[in-house]
Amino acid sequence: MTDEDQFSISRRQALAALGTVGVASAGAGLGTTAYLNDPETVDGNTMAAGQLDLVLDWQQTYNGEPVNAYPDHDGNDWQSLGSNAAGVDGDTYYAGPDADGKTAEDIPNVCQNLESGDDLPSDVFEGPDGQQHLIELGDVKPGDSGEVTFSLHLCGNPGYVWMDGVLQENAENGINEPESAVDDDGTGELADEMLAQVWYDLDCDNVRDGDEVVIAQGSIAEVLGELSDGGYLLDNRVYEDATTQTESNQTGSNDAATCFPLGKVETDGDNQNFVATGENVENVSSDGDTYTVTFDPDSETIAVEITVTERKESGEIVAFEYEFPDGYGACRVDVKGGTGVNRYEYEACTDSDSGLKPPFNSGGQQAAVSYVEFSYCETDGNGVPPDDGEDACIPNSHTRCVGFEWWLPIEVGNEVQSDSVAFDLGFYTEQCRHNDGTRSQ
């Protein structure tokens, strides 16, 4: 429309026009008038808040024997498993320790039929000894071990899920005569002598398989310390991306824009020296226990200094520290030893770290390092770890399992007699939408 075509009217003109209409209307009072019209309505509008409900089930064992489980329809302390042997489908449970051929006590929907929180059955923790807490053992001896695998189900909406742990007590409980010969300091030692590990139990089978990623490992005090400072954010990509678990690509998908695969440096056949083999390794030079590993990813040379800080008596590498050059850092480090991998992930681009180790082997002994694989970021690019962003969100109506295992090494002596530990484990969830994975509570 041109300026000449635009219609304008002043308030005085409007009043005058209304007066004219008023006179005309008075003269037409005996007739009927109707404007053309067509009403359109959208009725029944409603808004309701969404649901985010975290439901847990579990199986606990002690020295390989069942302690308690939920759900457990026949009361034999073995969990009622899912319609496949591992129970990972999350849709159907059957009574009994073995899913094969079981049809009784069918539960068609986990979210509708499993309870949580205060609604759990009052005797859910009792087990064979009438205990009142999930893990409650009063006569632990060197050589003993136990395990709990938790199955997580999000009902209603997807969510970020954190695993929490807090050491509440590490008590001495007095010193008896055998203990006094080796321990007289009056402080508890059990939390430091008892070992533990937490991992992504991908097949929900209560066993850490060699390709399953470790979340935390060490003494139970160290593991709970890893879980206590804001918790550990579970990454859904570890569950969904099979390449995350293979030896050929331990760095996973690296979806974060600033986290990229750097390379893998291996140790020799005796696991005593880092050598110039592996992905993207251009050269390895050494000065005693300090190795300079030059990586060449995408025509970019990055030299990382690795220093061995612990060896076995046989000379095998057990622990190390690393340092990146200026301008670069690590966002993820995978350390392979034996059949397992320990994964170290960082909330920001990290130029150095120490105390990195591979996991324990199946016999509870520390494995030697067989390779180290780095993913890197640029320190001026605000490096973001792979577990940041919505890809880490756990989808609703899917089962995700986490294993927690503890053991007291056989070589531990009288210093732990009568000692006790008390600790909390938990899971916390927040909605994914409008959330960048930064925990609010």
Task: Write up this protein.
The chain is mainly beta and 441 residues long. It has two domains: 53-234 and 394-431, no CATH class; 250-381, no CATH class. Helix content is 10%, strand content 34%. It is built from six helices and 19 strands. The chain has helices at 11-27, 110-113, 177-180, 190-193, 220-228, 236-240, and strands at 53-62, 65-70, 145-155, 159-171, 195-200, 213-219, 232-233, 260-267, 274-275, 281-287, 290-295, 302-311, 317-323, 328-337, 340-350, 352-356, 371-378, 399-407, 420-431. The strands form three sheets. Strands 2-1-3-18-5-6-15-14-17-8-9 form an eleven-stranded mixed beta sheet. A five-stranded antiparallel beta sheet has the order 10-11-12-13-16, with no helix packed on it. It is globular and about 60 Å long.
Strand content: 25-35%
Number of discrete domains: 2
Are there runs of 5+ residues with pLDDT below 50, and where?
Answer: 1-33, 83-108, 177-182, 242-257, 381-388
Question: What coarse outline follows from CA principal-axis ratios?
Answer: globular
Rg result: 31 Å
Number of helices: 6
Major β-sheet strand ordering: 2-1-3-18-5-6-15-14-17-8-9
Distance between the termini: 57 Å
> Structural class given helices, strands, pairing?
mainly beta
Q: What proportion of the residues is helical, as a percent range?
A: under 10%
Count the beta strands.
19
Q: What is the H/E order?
A: HEEHEEHHEEHEHEEEEEEEEEEEE
Mean pLDDT: 73
Biggest sheet descriptor: 11 strands, mixed
